[in-house]
């Protein structure tokens, strides 16, 4: 009597891989920022970002719409950079005067630039490259700083007769230059900027300048 073949159990369908879009978007953005910090715009492209992120380049088009969309996302991320590195929490410091506010902003901005190689790159590009991508990043950074200052300022006003816009522009430019000079050569105009005590001297000088103008 022939044996009836035993029907094999139905094969289970392979479990569908669930993509974590949020994690993928973050990986792409982090890879793009790291690539910019390391190599600048010269080698910044869809293929290079995809390789660094370990993903298919089509995902960059899907999630960011291409390279310009990715640059815009980096620009938007600069707003988070300002919020994270230059917090609105005063850390126990009472901001009683406009001078208090500018002293805090100046010191936090100095430290934030020292800690962030991508932001240093962006600052350097602002004065050396006039491209659409650089302008987008520069405008995003400037807008984020201006928004921070406006929220923190509240009713605080600079002393009468002081052009705060001009003074603050000079302060920010000085901070940017000293950090870039330190990064490139460890000094600025004869001031060594290698050891912690060197930066303490720089911070003390910065505070004196702020207080000299704003009291």
Tell me what you see in this structure.
The structure is a single chain. With 215 residues, this protein is an all-alpha fold. The protein folds into 2 domains: 21-65, Arc Repressor Mutant, subunit A, CATH 1.10.10.60; 82-214. Helix content is 67%, strand content 2%. It is built from 9 helices and 2 strands; from the N terminus they run ααααααααββα. Strands 1-2 form a two-stranded antiparallel sheet. Strand 1 and strand 2 (191-192) form a beta hairpin. The longest helix has 22 residues, at 132-153. The model is unreliable at 3-18 (pLDDT under 50). Keywords: DNA-binding, Transcription, Transcription regulation. This is AcrR family transcriptional regulator.
What overall geometry do the principal axes of the alpha carbons give?
globular
* Tally of strands: 2
Largest sheet: 2 strands, antiparallel
How many domains is the backbone divided into?
2
Structural class determined from secondary elements: mainly alpha
Identify low-pLDDT runs: 3-18
User: Can you list the strand order of the major beta sheet?
Assistant: 1-2
The rounded distance between the terminal residues' Cα atoms is 108 Å
Radius of gyration: 25 Å
Relative helix content: 55-70%
Number of alpha- plus pi-helical segments: 9
Proportion of residues in extended strands: under 5%
Mean pLDDT: 85
N-to-C series of helices and strands: HHHHHHHHEEH
């Amino acid at each position: 009597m022939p044996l009836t073949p035993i029907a094999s159990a139905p094969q289970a369908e392979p479990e569908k891989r669930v993509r974590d879009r949020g994690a993928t978007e973050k990986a792409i953005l982090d890879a793009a920022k790291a690539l910019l910090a390391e190599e600048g715009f010269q080698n910044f492209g869809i293929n290079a970002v995809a390789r660094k992120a370990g993903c298919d380049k089509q995902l960059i088009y899907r999630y960011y719409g291409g390279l310009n969309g990715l640059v815009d996302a980096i620009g938007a991320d600069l707003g988070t950079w300002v919020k994270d590195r230059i917090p609105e929490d005063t850390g126990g410091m009472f901001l009683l005067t406009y001078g208090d506010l500018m002293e805090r902003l100046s010191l936090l901005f100095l430290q934030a630039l020292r800690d962030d190689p991508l932001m240093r790159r962006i600052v350097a590009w602002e004065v050396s490259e006039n491209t659409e991508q650089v302008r987008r990043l520069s405008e995003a950074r400037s807008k984020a700083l201006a928004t921070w200052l406006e929220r923190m300022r509240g009713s605080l006003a600079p002393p009468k007769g002081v052009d705060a816009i001009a003074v603050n522009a000079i302060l920010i430019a000085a901070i940017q230059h000293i950090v870039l000079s330190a990064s490139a050569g460890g000094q600025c105009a004869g001031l060594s900027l290698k050891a912690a005590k060197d930066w303490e001297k720089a911070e003390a000088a910065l505070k004196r300048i702020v207080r000299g103008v704003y009291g």
